[in-house]
Amino acid sequence: MTNAPVFLVGGTNLFRRGLMSFLGDTDFAVTEEFDTIDDCISAAESEAPEVVIYAASGDIEMSESAIDTLTRTFPDVRVMVLSGELSVEELGACLKAGARGYLLSSISKEALVHSLTLVVLGETVFPSGLANAWVNGGLSQRRPTNQAPVRDLTRRETDILECLTSGASNKQIARDLGITEATVKIHMKSLIRKIGVSNRTQAALWAINSGFGQSIMGAAA
What we know:
Layout: E1 6-10, H1 13-22, E2 30-34, H2 37-43, E3 51-55, H3 60-73, E4 78-83, H4 88-97, E5 101-104, H5 109-120, H6 129-135, H7 155-164, H8 170-177, H9 181-195, H10 200-209
Helix pairs in contact: 3-4, 7-9, 8-9
């Protein structure tokens, strides 16, 4: 893929410099760094950023507001949030505000580059470790209403839900399951309707809340 310049916003100066070094020899080299979203927007008036990595401070309202402001200003920007702690509330707020990814700052270099690649391709990613915390009772989330029981899903639909918990793209799911990408899309549409959610991200969260992902935990983070 072609190089995708990255703007880095938030966090400490030391953190930003470390991440710049971390990504220096990848397709996602950091070209600009800023303390705040306002600084980023002011500097990017003449050229909209393609990818922004936002270092969350732990203040959920602040993160949500910053991402909302950024995505409203630059509708095509892909925002990846890096957080020091796993928080389902922060995850939900960031995705609602328009972020395309939410990962822990402890993620490996290879996993971060892979996740950024998926985000640029239009996918949404979040840590597979979320599944572990959910299964072990470390997180709580209200289940969507009108959800079908797992027994109403086909075997292939449950296979796809397993893949979704690791943030896999349709192409990756097709490769892993030995089917075409068009077939994945058909099954995806069917399972989204059955479980009563609106998109693949909500389907992934539903799957985690329903106990999926235990066999593939740790694949993305």
